[in-house]
Each structure stands twice: as C-alpha cells, then as structure tokens.
Fold each of these.
Amino acid sequence: MSTIADVAARAGVSKATASRALSGGGYVSAPTREKVRAAASELSYVAHSSATSLATGRSLSVGVIMPALDRWFFAELLAGIQAGLLASGQDLVLYGIRERTAERAQLFEEVLPRRRLDGIIAVGIQPSARELERLIRVESPLVSIGAYSEGTSAVSIDDAGAARIATEHLIDLGHRDIAFLGGTADAATHAFGDERRLAGYRQAMMAAGLAAFVRHADGEPTMPGGYEAAVRMLGDRQSRPTALVAVCDEAAIGAVVGARRLGLSVPAELSIVGIDDHEHAEMFALTTVRQQPRAQGLAAVEVLRRRMDAPDAAPERQVLPSELVVRASTAAPR
Amino acid sequence: MSTIADVAARAGVSKATASRALSGGGYVSAPTREKVRAAASELSYVAHSSATSLATGRSLSVGVIMPALDRWFFAELLAGIQAGLLASGQDLVLYGIRERTAERAQLFEEVLPRRRLDGIIAVGIQPSARELERLIRVESPLVSIGAYSEGTSAVSIDDAGAARIATEHLIDLGHRDIAFLGGTADAATHAFGDERRLAGYRQAMMAAGLAAFVRHADGEPTMPGGYEAAVRMLGDRQSRPTALVAVCDEAAIGAVVGARRLGLSVPAELSIVGIDDHEHAEMFALTTVRQQPRAQGLAAVEVLRRRMDAPDAAPERQVLPSELVVRASTAAPR
DNA sequence: CCGCGCGGTGGGAGCGCTCCCATAGCCTAA
DNA sequence: TTAGGCTATGGGAGCGCTCCCACCGCGCGG
C-alpha cells in the first residue's frame, strides 16, 4: 500500500501539501490539488484510518450497542442507523450485548474506551452512572434509543401514549372487556418500553371507567409468545375478553393465529390491535399503532451528530409520533 | 485520558516495559508486571486502539458486509458472527450494502481499504475479481457466506442438497404433484442460493421420474411473498399440487397461512415443507430442512481466523450439513 | 520605495503505541 | 577466570497522518 509520502513524491509536492489537497483544509492552488489527486488515484492511495484517527483524534466510527438482532424492531432500527451513518461517512461498530453483566462491564470499561469512538448509540440500555462516566472520560457522546434516562440524549416513541391510542380505539368501538397481551415483567427479555405500554393501557382503561376489566396475560413479545398467551387467555369461553391490546405486532400476530386456531373469528368475535406496524401487519390485516424504527435510527444519528458538534449542549430528547393504522383486525363487539 | 507514558511514569518503569507488561510479549519480571498493572488500573488506562493499530498493523476489527438485516437468516447469521468475534476480541464493523453499484464500488475502493481490516466476511455477495484485488492489496483475508465463488474461502450449506432432501421427503410420502414455491429469478432480492434450491428440487423430481410435474411459483422469499404465491397457485382446485417445497421457511409459513385462508387443511389436503428451521417453524408445526445460520456465522469466523494466521493457505470451503426436521405440515396425500 | 497582508508551500513535531536493539547484571560451564 | 547465555530493562525509531508554524513571493496602499 502506498502512503501519503508516495503520493506527495509522485506529485512533486510535500506531504503537508498532499494532505491539504486530499482532505480539504488550508490553502492549495487548483493545479496543485489536481496534480495530487491524479497521483493519488494512479497509486490507488487510500488514507490509513488509524493514522488519521491518531493524528486527528476522531475515529470516524460510531459504536452501536444492541441487545438483540433477531427481532423486527431491532433489525429495522439497525438498518436505519446504518443508513444514517453511511450518509455521514461514519463506520458502524456493532456490539451485541446480552444482559450478562460480566460482558457488559467489560464493554463499558475496556472495549468502548479503547476505540475512542466518535459517538455511541445505545439501544434499549440504561447506562449506569459509572458507565456514563467512563464514556465521558473518552468524550464519546451518547444517544440512547428507547431508554428513558434523565441526563442523556434519547430518541423514542411515547410508549404509554401508543398503548393509550390502541386502547382508546377499542373503547371507541364499544369494547369494554379489553385485555393486554404480552409484556412480561421479566427484565431478561429486555422489556423495551413494555411496562410503559402496559401502563398506557391501564391509564386508558381507568380514564374510561373500565378499571374492573384491567388484566393482562404475560408472554414474550414474540409471535410464539403472543400465540401462547392468547391461547391461554382465550381458552375459556366465559371469561374471554372481546378485545386485545398486544404489546407489539409480533405478539398481536401470534394472537391472530392463536385465535384462528381456536376457531374464533377476527374481528367478529375478537378484536386485536398491535403496536409497531410490523412488515407483516398488512398481511394479517392487523390494526396497529405505527412506530417507525428506521426513522428512530435515523433520528438517533441526527441527534448524535448534533452532540458531536456541540458536546456541551443540553441533552436532547426526541419523541417520535405514533399513529393509529386501522386495518381489519378490529371491529365493534357484537 | 491517560497514556502508556503516564502508566510507565507512575509505575517507575519505561514505556517499553509498561507496554510489555500489559500486552504480553517479551520478558518482564512478575513484580514489575504487577506494578504496571496496578498503575494502569489506578489510572483506568486503556490503550488507544488507533495507536496500537498503527504500530502493529493489525486493526483488531473485522468487516461484515450484509445485503439485508431484516430477514431471519441474516439476523441470525450476524448474531453468530458477532458472538464469534466477541470471543476472539475482534470488533465487528458492519457494512450494509444494497446492490446499488455506486455504493458498492465505493465500499470496495475506499471504505474497506481505509480501515485496514484484519478480515472481511461477505454475506451473499460474490466479490468481483477487481474487488478481490483491492482487498488483497490491503491484505484483508476474505470469507464469504453463501456465495459459491471458486477462488475464495466460503461457508455455506448445500442448497441444492437441502432442496433435494425436502423434495424427496414429499416423494417418499407418496406425493407426485409437487411444486416449488418462491425463488424469484430477480437478482435484486439477493437470491441467496435460491436458484440452487430450485435446481435441487428439479433434480429430485427428475430422479423420481416426475419431470412432468415440475413447476414453480415466483415470489419473494418472505412471508407475504409466500402467502401471495401460495394463494395464486392454490386458487384453482383443478390444477393445484398436493405438496409444496418452499424456498425458505418464511415463504413456507406464508404458504401455510395462505392455505388456511383458502380453507385448505394442512397437511391433510396440502403438504408443505420449508428450508431453514426458522424460529417460528415450531409454532406452525412446519416440516423443514434445518440450516443453522448462527453456526454458519461462527464457522465463518473460525475460517477467517485460520486465514488470518496463514494467509497463504489454500482457500477453505466449508459446507455445513442439512437435516430434515419432520413436524406436522407434511403427510401422505389422500 | 517599503511594509504588510495574503495565497501558497514545506519542514517537522507529535498523536500513542510497539518493537528492535543496546545494555547490564547474573549464573553457569569450560 | 572468562566467555557466553539468559532474564530484565530502557532508549528511541517509526507506524502514517495532520497541523502548527515558518517562509516566500507578490500585489497593493501609504
């Protein structure tokens, strides 16, 4: 591989001039710039990022901490972040992290500081004070997605609000016996705003004077989780609700499948509303409250960039809007 | 942030000794090593990766090129790669790449060479000769997953074989009118061994003397894609096959849902077999041919590590086994 | 005519690390 | 006794880049 010294020599200028010609800053005459560019391209010169990074102090890369990759929300989010970073020329360094504390400590104590990352996007993770302190030491601005921390910048939707919208839609249709599906109390499943959604459902029920009907079926926020929870809850003809608010679309779709399996017709006998607007929602004609993880990823990159430019600005909190998408999984009760 | 000079000063030794004490190589007495370690930990010293990388020539990171993130196979693969790299202390730099050639050229010409990555894992991408040449220049060993290139190391399953296994299972059950579902000819959907699977189905049909029944319904390798293709193909009572081989489980599940929608009972009236053993296969009682993307990701990391140690060794080709998993979506035709 | 500002260029220090090489003490074998 | 090897340490060059600063020539205003 050729270095900038080779390029400079070939163009007949100094290293300093070559550097200026290629990476922008300072005075370079147009002909000189052209000469250097030509030389660089003839040698197929590409600057060594470690050298650049060492000299400038910026690493041109952003760390992304993800608790999972195999769920729609996270995959979409990652795609959004990826697209945003691509546009700004930053590389994406991916750190998977199960809630295993040893790994997590290692990540914050060593791995992240080592890289001197230009920024960090933490998904669904509440960094502790000590962890934040480590990051501040290396001056990596942080933006979290979906976490509701006080002192740090964050992007999310209003989870409680989304669940309220979903619940109110059912109430408006005339339902009273509305149950909440999914949203396990188990933190190990990286409850991603799940409690907030449950809380939003409760609020809407209370506000409508339906406190007596409040109940929920635990389950993983996945399709099989929703399926099982639905089958469990709908099994008894007597006690079964007329409508379900699911913690997310995957669970909702599981519930749709489960209801069919039980011979219940959706929406005639059971209304189901989800939260997400998952790519499969259309196929199952699912009424849902849309959130756009890709947009959240892009927004996080935007916020991060602003923080990189102005590290001392006050933390920025961005709440993206939620919108009801009515399809054919909800109807008035008979 | 403190540097190794600070650590050395605090421990009362030279930079050289401090470096040796912390990163292994060379002679250091036990007490000195302890002193240095203590100093490092007191200063919460973490080596600057760019400096290390510049000095050693190794970047401690591996690039991963992914055509998509929102499909089960890719997400699982990425999780496997991630786990493998975590174990070997390498960072994962993620590059998403749609088949837009401008971006792709940029990636191979500039982005990857700039990083001086220790290795590259390319998923479902056939690097061109010129692209490989660029990588060889920067001495990044490459392992591809799912691509069937000649000169490079690769990990994959035997796609044709998997489809043959699926088809033969149906033939063994007594089916004759077996169609193939999905596997669009459209390269834009990153046909991931799809043609090979179609070919495997054909081979099995031919071998069983069922050439007359060979046919397939185009469709995206997704759940909605499989749903649509199935509805299209199963619409006509007269011409409909008694069994389907789906290009992947997502399509197969879509077909299961579509069949139910049409009032066809699976497996009594229609047998369906997929390829993947998707996490939802269990829920839909789907008979399928298992492939394990996580294992493929881990295997790719393994192969890559070997290539990093011995860059001049002959390219290594690893084909992971496929195995039939019989559930309840297949049965003898009536 | 001189001084000054400004466009343009080069020299070289320095980013933080590793690793080669020199040095030094000490123990063992001839 | 002394050469030689072996452990332990330090000095400092060098990885490839950027950027500060010095320098230079030229045009222009006083």
Note: Residues 187-191 of chain A have pLDDT under 50 and may be disordered.
Amino acid sequence: MIRTNTAFLDFILVNQDHYPEGSVQELSIKKGQQLIRQRSSVNAVSIVKEGIAKCFLYQEDGTDFILEFFGPGEVVGEIEMLNNEMSFAAVEAITPITVLRISRDWFNELLTNDPVFNHYVLKLLAGKVKYKATRFSFAQTHTVEQTLKKMLIDMPDLLEVISKKDLVSYLGITERSLNRTLKSLKDNGQI
Amino acid sequence: MIRTNTAFLDFILVNQDHYPEGSVQELSIKKGQQLIRQRSSVNAVSIVKEGIAKCFLYQEDGTDFILEFFGPGEVVGEIEMLNNEMSFAAVEAITPITVLRISRDWFNELLTNDPVFNHYVLKLLAGKVKYKATRFSFAQTHTVEQTLKKMLIDMPDLLEVISKKDLVSYLGITERSLNRTLKSLKDNGQI
DNA sequence: GAAAGTAAAGGACATTTGTCCCAGCTGCAG
DNA sequence: CTGCAGCTGGGACAAATGTCCTTTACTTTC
C-alpha cells in the first residue's frame, strides 16, 4: 500500500550525472510540508528518493481523501505536466523526505528524446491506473473490517508507519469507524 | 461519466491510411460480447469508434465492479500491453460497438516512432488516473443519493443509456439500494 | 383473455458506518 | 499537588446500505 518504483529511481540516479546542470535538483522536505498544493500550477516533476509522502484530494467538506502513499521511486507532478493543468491533488510529506526534482523542460526533453525514460513514464502511469482500479474496487465492495484486515496482512507495521488520521483519510471513513474496527479485530484476536 | 476521446480517434482515423496493411482492423462487436476477458493475454490495443463498452472487474463474490464506460475514442488494452501482463479487467460491449484494433507490433512501433501518438497515449493514461481519482474520492465520501444526483445532473438520460444492473455495478451497491435511492429522488421531485 | 412464469420494485429487518457527546488520560501552569 | 486544556477512545443513537422475501407488473403460452 505504500507504493515504490525502485527501478525508475535507480535509472534516474544512474543517469543524472549526464543531465545538464540544474536539470535535476535534490530537495529535502520536512514532515508536513507540501510538495504540491491542490489547484496550483506545477512546473516540475519530483521523484521520491527517501521517505513517504501522501497524495490526497481536499474535499469541499473539509476532509481529505488519500489516493496513494508514495515511497521511494514514486513520481509526482507528471500528470499535471502532461495535461498542462493545475494540480488536482496535493502531495505532502508524512515523514521527512528527499526528492529529485526534474525541471519541466528537462522532463519534456527526456520524455521526447529518451525512449527508456519515456517507457518508464508510460509504465508508471499504467501502474497508477491499475493500482487505483483494484484498490477502489475492493474498497467499494468490502466492509472496512475486510479492507483493514487485508491491509494489516500486507503490511503488519501499518499502524506504526501511518497515523490514524491518515489511515482514516485513506479509507474514506471516520475516526470512530476506524477505532471500532480496530477494536473488533483485536477482540477477535485477528491483530 | 461515459468517457470519450474524440481527438485521439480523429488522429487515428486521419492517419490510418498511411499505416501498413493489417496493422489497424475495424471490428464490429455485438452487445454483450467481450472485447477483453479478465486474466487473459492481450495482443492488441483497441479504440472504440462507435458505441459504448464497460470496463469492469469480476469480484471473487460474483459481483462486477465497473471502472469506466468507454465511448468513442477511448482505448482499451494499452495498460496490459505496456506492462506485458494478463488483463486485470474485462471489457464488454453494452451497445453494439465498432472498434479499431491496432496490432501489438504496430502499437509498439507507433509508441516508439510517432511522438504525437506517444503523447496521446501518455495523456490518455493521465486522464484515466485523474478520472479514477476524482470519481472514487467523491464516491467514497458521499452517499449514494449524492453521487446519483450528481450523475443525473451531468447526464440526464443516464437511465435510458445505462441499464440498472450496470449502474449498480458502477456504483458498487445493490439493486435494492439503487431502487430506494431512485425512489427517494423521485419523491423529492429531484428527478 | 386467463393462467403461469419471470423480471422488477418495494417492505421489513439486519448490519455497517456516521454523528454526537462524554469519560478518562496526559501534560503543563500555577 | 491541583486544576484545567486538549487529545483519544468508546457508548448510544441515527442514518445509510445490505439481505431476504413478498408483492406487483409484465410476458408468454395456450
């Protein structure tokens, strides 16, 4: 559930030496800082090098809905760049993170002239589509208890890594429901 | 909610004359026939030319979950092609449809050597990501009544175009819930 | 046109999730 | 130590949705 793409990260790390000065910058971002704000213009693509960020939508009612947790190798901003649009989601560090920031121009340059880079971007987008499809399909047709149980099997240290508030936003439920479900799983010895 | 991509369809229609013999085939598919089966290998990318298809996942419990309705210009099979994987979803005609079927080899050829084609594919993938993100975020944080009301505003003839069964699968609810919600909207004069 | 069979709609109750609020804990100021 | 602010978990009830089954309407057949 925390997504990674180490193959792509390695590819960039290996190749960035040949990229022009300033085309790729390494940035450190503190926990809680936003890498991309919702409805802002995006002029760079960033790759998470270390740490975890959340990608989420503000809802009109004040709650957030988390689309994905991005770990090492995951890419943010590419969708806005491709569509030449304002960001439709926000991205915020939930641990201290470092990112590799590729300038708009160099991203487009690589996309056009480096077939390997281009293919990585295609695959990464396909991966995002598939991830969302399977995740939401499961969530939509299962109870919170079933979903949470599955998540805990996939990632036993979930509750140490992700705050309850973020978990609630990821599941699209209330804190009350999360607490209730957690208690019920504990009472049944499933956790 | 029925997605289309006429720019891409036009692009293919205009250019296909220059493509090699057999690289693009036009096929007619009857209502109810499957264009792609779930967990099957995919060896062509298809573009809907006319009609509507549904893209859905079978769930273990026997219910379907519809990810998208594809209208003219929408593309199926590209994700599997890019990842070189079995299909993770099924695609089935819900009206009679015609599609342009691009062979695996020619799709890869165009992707590599036609920058305009390549860019269309990138944008189309980005569009699928964004569509899923906003749709599921809304669905997850609103009631069925709110979601349905929004859909009916966006598409007043929804119920004539999409069967109740499909609507139920799209919303991830039961028929009983859909009927109840529809009745409640009618009783309140909202429909 | 009546009887029988089938599909769609809806009533009654169960389960899941949300809302509201209170009790108990923690930390800090005085 | 005392008392209060703020956070966390949970109780009680409300709303939303699912399950099961009955009723209604619509076909088909004779």
Note: The helical segments of chain A are 6-15, 78-83, 104-113, 115-141, 144-154, 158-161, 164-171, 175-187.
Amino acid sequence: MGAIKIGELAARTGTSAPTIRYYEQIGLLRRPERQERGQRVYAGDDVERLTFIRRCREFDFSIDQVRALTALVQDPRSSCTDARDLAATHLSAVRAKMRELKALERSLVQFVKTCDTACAGGPGPDCVVLGDLGKSCGCGVGVR
Amino acid sequence: MGAIKIGELAARTGTSAPTIRYYEQIGLLRRPERQERGQRVYAGDDVERLTFIRRCREFDFSIDQVRALTALVQDPRSSCTDARDLAATHLSAVRAKMRELKALERSLVQFVKTCDTACAGGPGPDCVVLGDLGKSCGCGVGVR
DNA sequence: GTAGACCTTCAAGTAACTTGAGGGTCAAGG
DNA sequence: CCTTGACCCTCAAGTTACTTGAAGGTCTAC
C-alpha cells in the first residue's frame, strides 16, 4: 500500500476528492507529500485518520467537534473520559433534536388528517387548514 | 392597528427585523410601504402572512416549500389536496430523518457505554474506542 | 490524434439567516 | 444644549460543510 492518490483515498473512505482538499484547506487533514507533477500522495495512516473523521461526521459531530476529538486522540495527556463527555453532550443534543422532530411529526400528521376530513379537496382560498395557519391557529396545527 | 413598524411585526410574529428584511429581499414577503423617513410600514395581513411563513418554517419546510405553499394559498385554482400532498411528502422526510437520528442515538449510547467499561478513563492513545474509530471498527460504533 | 480518466488551482454557489459597519431620527433626562 | 438610548436604514460579509464550475495539465488506450 505505497502511493495512494486522492481518488483512491476518497474511494476508500467514502469521501470525494474535493472534500478531501477542503479538509486539507481547513487544517483538518495534514498537507500530504506531492509527486513531481504536484499530485497528492497519501499514506496508510491518512486513510485511518480520514476514516475517523468521516465516522465522526456520520455521527453528526460538527467539524469543530471532530477537531476536538482528533486532538484528544493524538494528545497523550488526554483521557478517554474527555471523549466520553463529548459524546455524551452530543447524545443529549441528538435526543433534543429527536424530541423536536417527534412533535413536528405529530403536527404534520394532524395537518394531513385535517386536510382529509375538513377540506376534502376544496379550493385553496377556502381551505380551513391553510387559512388557519396564518391566524392564531385552530386545527391543532402550529402547536410548538 | 394602523402603522406597524418592523420591530413590532418582528415581535408579533416571533421573527427578527433582519430576518424580515431578508424575506423581503428574497421575495417571500412583499415590499411594504414606506414612511417619509424610509421606514417600512406594515398592515394587518402582513402579520398574517408572516405568521403563516414562520409556522411553516417551524415545521421545517424549506423556503422553497413555503413559497409553494403561499402560492397555493393565494391561487384560487389550487386545491387543498395539493397542500396535503406537500405536507405528506414532508412528513415522510421527517420520519426518515428520525430513523437516522434513532440509529445515531443507539451508536452514541454504545460509544459512551464502551468508554465506561473498556477504557475506564485511560489515556487517549490507549483508548480502545477512539482507536477503533479510525480502523475498520470493532466496538459496535460506526455502524451505519 | 483524440477521447477519457485522472489530477491541479482558484472562485463562486448553496441554505437561511446573522452579524457588523456606519449612519439617521426622535424623545427623554440632566 | 447635549447626550443617551431606542428605534430605524443600507450594504457587505460571515456562518456551516461542502459542492460546483472554469480552465488547465498529464497520461494511457484506441
């Protein structure tokens, strides 16, 4: 596994070449060596590092959080609990987002249901639901 | 309810003045009349329209979807079922997002749990979890 | 000799706002 | 009379995490 070019690194890590260049630009990925022709050449641990980054991104960690996590991994003085705490914080954010979406789902279900029963395909301006949306709100829709 | 200025419109609709100016700029809100001094003056139906828009945004409709919905409301030829269909489409997107978050939540819980049992506060470079994240993946974390 | 598959750079576009700079108007308080 | 604070205005740039586009170089295969 000698000279990995950007296309192969992208394929191996489920990224795209522009994204890799972008990560390099913002300092998330180190600047790799270059061939005579200027092409980037990567090594095995670049695959590892980028895999780590992508996995964190799949976990919806922000770039800044990923930066913190990679720093954690590389810093010998840091403890695993630091990473755990970061993950725990992130977990509660994810759960909050889910609660929001759950409420949103209920509202939308109600919206669709009201459309079906109250309006039954009537014309736009007479639609109860759409009209109510702009007012103080009947119809159970728009509850935060 | 005669002359509503931008600050009051913002307060009444849970928006900010810059956001209102932004909506005007992108053509989501009509250009209001102006006082001699150039200040925007709004009327009652602007409150209604902006309330409608904000409520849609709370429902996570994109600006483009809101545009479509407001067009629907104003077009006499449109039917309520069009709005219903838009909402239904949106609903399934919301549900897909929730499934993703659910999977994400499970992974994070696993991550935190592994941190607690396997590493127990050991130093960063020796951390099993963080190390594994960059590899093919043990520890149940990183499962898509 | 040219078509296709790679690679390079830099700049601008995306969503939905927010923030900042720089300035004007008006009423109340000292 | 002057300043302070609360409003309002415009225009430009910043935010997040990339993606897309323009314009070009290199190499292999047919």
Note: Chain B has a mean pLDDT of 80.
Amino acid sequence: MGKQVTEMLKGTLEGIVLAILAGRPAYGYEITSWLRDKGFTEIAEGTIYALLIRIEQRGYVDVEKVPSEKGPPRKVYTLNAQGRAYLDEFWRNWSFLAERLEQLRKGDG
Amino acid sequence: MGKQVTEMLKGTLEGIVLAILAGRPAYGYEITSWLRDKGFTEIAEGTIYALLIRIEQRGYVDVEKVPSEKGPPRKVYTLNAQGRAYLDEFWRNWSFLAERLEQLRKGDG
DNA sequence: GGCCACTATTCAGTGTCACTATCTACCGGT
DNA sequence: ACCGGTAGATAGTGACACTGAATAGTGGCC
C-alpha cells in the first residue's frame, strides 16, 4: 500500500474488521481473503492477526477454536455486546469525520 | 479526543490541513481555531504545528513570515504544486476508503 | 510598573497502530 | 520426500497524534 493509505487505515482497519464480524463470525485467514477481494490488495496477513489479538484482549470478541479440514485449527471470532457498542461508537466517529471531509472537498466554508 | 478518533485522524488530519490550505493560505494558530469551530474541539495546538513542519519539510507548502498586529510573527503556509498533487492523491485514497466503509455499513456483501 | 489574557510557535517524550519479515504447523497431491 | 495452500504467531520498525511545558510578543487593567 502507499504510505498514505497505511496511515489512513490506522484506527479504521479495526472498525472494518469489527464491521465484518458484525455480519457473521469469521477467522483471520478468511478476513484477509475477504479484504483482498474487496480491493485492499496489500494488507499483510500479519496485520490482521495482530489486530484480532488486540480486539480479543480488549474483550470485543469471543473466540472459539474450530478444527479445519485443511490445515491447522481456526480461531473463529464472534462480536459480543461490548464489541457491538464499540462498533457503534466507531460508526458515529466515522460519520463525523466523513461529513467534515465531504464539506472540505466541496469548497468548504 | 477519544482514542478512536485520535487513531482515525492519523493520515487524515494531514489531508484535512492540506485541504484547508488549498482554499487559502493560512498560519498555524488560524488553522487550529478553524478546526475547533468545525467541531474538532480537542485537537491539540502542538499537533497542528508539528504537522505543518512536516509538510513543509516534504515540500508540499511554501512558507512566508508575516508580522502580526498582535503577538509574534506568523508563519503563513501556501499550498504549492507538489502539495496539490499530494492532496489529489489523498482524495483518491479517501474516496476508496469511504466507499468500502459505506458498503460495509449497509450490510455489505 | 507588574500582572494577566490573548496571540503564536516550538519541542521532548509517550502510546498506538500498520507494516515487514520470519517462523511454526497441518494437510493433500505428486 | 517435497511443495503449495491453509492457518496463525511474533519481534522489530516507522509514522503519527497527543501531552505538557516552554518561549515570546502585544495590549489592557489595576
């Protein structure tokens, strides 16, 4: 990724992953593949795993180890109540930022 | 600011300031006041000054020292051609990110 | 004449985050 | 036995916004 995008993702990537988990439980490798599909072609796998560990330690997700037919067991993450609350806050903050930016883009005031 | 917003601002605040300078030349204290008016109530002054020094060193802005009627001289920053190009790139990246986020928010796919 | 408020900038130290690079581990096919 | 795909962990790095304090000029008030 360009450095600009890397910096922009700080704080946002966390929200993106939580938003994905709000739709359905998922595991790291799956999330990485999904992101690549959606155009985030260069997000390193290591980044996602580190992020998942972080949100687990903060108590936003519940974790379950599930055996895989292929390869080692998966760690499936499920968003819990605390995580949902944090995601709500994320969307509020994102909206605030996005609105200001949009105003700025169109000549502003 | 909440920590969430602090992280989201990384990379974005730079774009915000460049966007302001795209509208008109400005100096640090002025930009800080403007941001506070626009709802970024808790952005520290020190943050803006550090950012201005950074974009100056990268060559995105031209600087002129202008005496002030009140207080010490101002450092007035003007966006130059390089800065404008960088700002264009910022808007492209921002659009990309904002679109993905918007898709995610509405149930996604 | 000393103090305070406002204007204006600088700087050292801190925490957080995404990235890089590398490592472990399990499976199937050849 | 080897390799490619699946799945996860981790130490070290760089960039950025924040904290908190310092510096410095001007004007008004008592």
Note: The longest strand of chain B covers residues 61-66.
